[in-house]
Design goal:
Elements (H helix, E strand, L loop, with lengths): L1 H17 L6 H29 L4 H26 L4 H26 L3 H27 L4 H33 L1 H11 L3 H14 L22 H8 L1 H27 L5 H34 L1 H21 L3 H25 L6 H33 L4 H27 L4
Helix pairs in contact: 2-5, 2-6, 2-7, 2-8, 2-11, 3-5, 3-14, 4-5, 4-7, 4-8, 5-14, 6-7, 6-11, 6-13, 9-14, 10-13, 10-14, 10-15, 11-12, 11-13, 12-13, 12-15
Length: 430
């Protein structure tokens, strides 16, 4: 009797703090763990990639981003062809197993060839492809696991797992890069990428047994296949105004990321590579600590109380003010503060809100059109905004203050896109 009372009290406390219903708790915890492991692996790899960027000029980096876009198009096309021919139950775990093997391959190449610029550039491009794939596939799976009402309450809690993983992940290169070495970090991440595979199978069984979502179209346990056209995702994207609006929203986000990233890497050019790895890792720690607190106390309540228009427009609106501050005080510390705010807001608020949008579409759109948006549109935005930045700085001659004012104007447009998209979602995505 006392045990039952204690259990009920615990359930009430969890529900009050997180808005998680008792039947959703197991799936939410496993989803949290799933993305925690993914992000820990990625953030072990990310500082290694970013430490390489200061070795190259703006033009060389712009060409690398251009290469990333073309590799992303090829990867999404191959992915579309493969998932048209295999059963849904093997798609998600196969993606993570494949990427784990590729990072083992980079470890072998680095050990065999030593310091090699071609290998470094290939790693930079490949991790940039992976950085979008691993989360795109994860959120595709999540949007087919939970219904729209559950997504509003639970996605912010699940996103806390991403923030927690992104705290643990960069702590390893930040504090141990000198002792472990950059190459050994690749093996650690490869092992972590295999952990989600059994979690995926368990979550799919919980979709019906505990979440009660038989009508959500993402059944990986059955023999269902997607439509046979490997390029249907591209066609769906360009013909659907709702998806095009999501693509525009992402393009504005990418521009914010590009402008800050290029300025930060310039300012770190005087440090050696291990120190750069530690600095980038330190930024990641600050970002994800703030994101975790925000997701815990604000995100779910923001989406349920104020709706999607405000949820999607909040961080863009903050970026307008942030860029103005950078224009008035164009120094490294202020730029780092803006980067921390932008990325923490993305992980805790903007990204979960954006992923809620895909609960309004069917499985074929999620698995085939969503990667086009998350990867091809994103990397296409990288190319456009990287060359835009290069033109503004190298051709027009703008410094950080001038770049900041241009970015503030784009941030205002981004906020408008968020309001528009949030209203469409609340009308049913029509």
């Amino acid at each position: 009797m006392n045990n039952n009372r204690q259990e009920n009290a615990l359930q009430r406390a969890i529900r009050a703090a997180t808005k998680v219903e008792p039947n959703e708790l197991k799936a939410t915890v496993l989803s949290f763990l799933f993305v925690f492991v993914l992000m820990a692996a990625y953030f072990i790899l990310r500082p290694v990639r970013d430490s390489l960027s200061s070795d190259w000029t703006d033009e060389q980096l712009s060409w690398l981003w251009t290469s990333t876009f073309f590799f992303s198009v090829i990867a999404v096309s191959i992915y579309g062809a493969v998932i048209s021919r295999i059963r849904l139950r093997v798609i998600v775990p196969s993606v993570y197993a494949f990427f784990a093997l590729t990072f083992v391959g980079f470890y072998i190449a680095g050990s065999t060839l030593g310091e090699n610029d071609i290998v470094n550039r290939c790693y930079y491009v490949w991790l940039s492809v992976f950085s979008l794939y691993h989360l795109s596939v994860f959120w595709t799976f999540m949007s087919g696991l939970y219904n729209k009402e559950q997504a509003k309450r639970l996605f912010s809690i699940i996103a806390m797992g991403a923030s927690a993983g992104a705290i643990v992940g960069p702590a390893i290169p930040t504090f141990f890069a000198d002792n472990i070495g950059n190459l050994n970090l690749l093996l650690i991440a490869a092992v972590l990428l295999m952990v989600p595979i059994p979690i995926i199978m368990k979550l799919e069984s919980l979709r019906i047994s505990e979440l009660g979502n038989e009508d959500v179209q993402a059944d990986l346990a059955g023999d269902k296949k997607l439509s046979g056209n490997p390029f249907s995702g591209f066609k769906t994207f360009v013909s659907n105004p709702y998806l095009l609006a999501i693509g525009l929203f992402i393009l504005f986000y990418v521009l914010m990321n590009t402008f800050i990233y290029f300025e930060l890497r310039k300012m770190m050019g005087d440090f050696d590579r291990e120190v750069r790895t530690q600095i980038w890792g330190g930024i990641d720690l600050a970002v994800n600590s703030l994101a975790l607190l925000t997701a815990l106390f604000a995100t779910g309540r923001l989406a349920t109380r104020f709706g999607m228009p405000i949820t999607l427009a909040l961080i863009p609106a903050l970026m307008v003010g942030g860029w103005v501050v950078v224009a008035l005080s164009p120094v490294l510390a202020v730029l780092i503060g803006l980067q921390v705010t932008r990325r923490a807001g993305n992980y805790a608020i903007t990204r979960p809100g954006r992923e809620m949008l895909f609960t309004a579409v069917d499985a074929d759109t999620r698995f085939k059109a969503k990667p086009v948006i998350d990867i091809v549109v994103y990397r296409g935005g990288d190319v456009v905004t990287a060359w835009l930045y290069t033109a503004l700085t190298a051709t027009v001659g703008l410094g950080l203050a001038g770049v900041a004012l241009v970015a503030a104007a784009f941030a205002a447009a981004w906020a408008g896109a968020g309001i528009y998209l949030g209203r469409k979602y609340e009308r049913g995505g029509d």
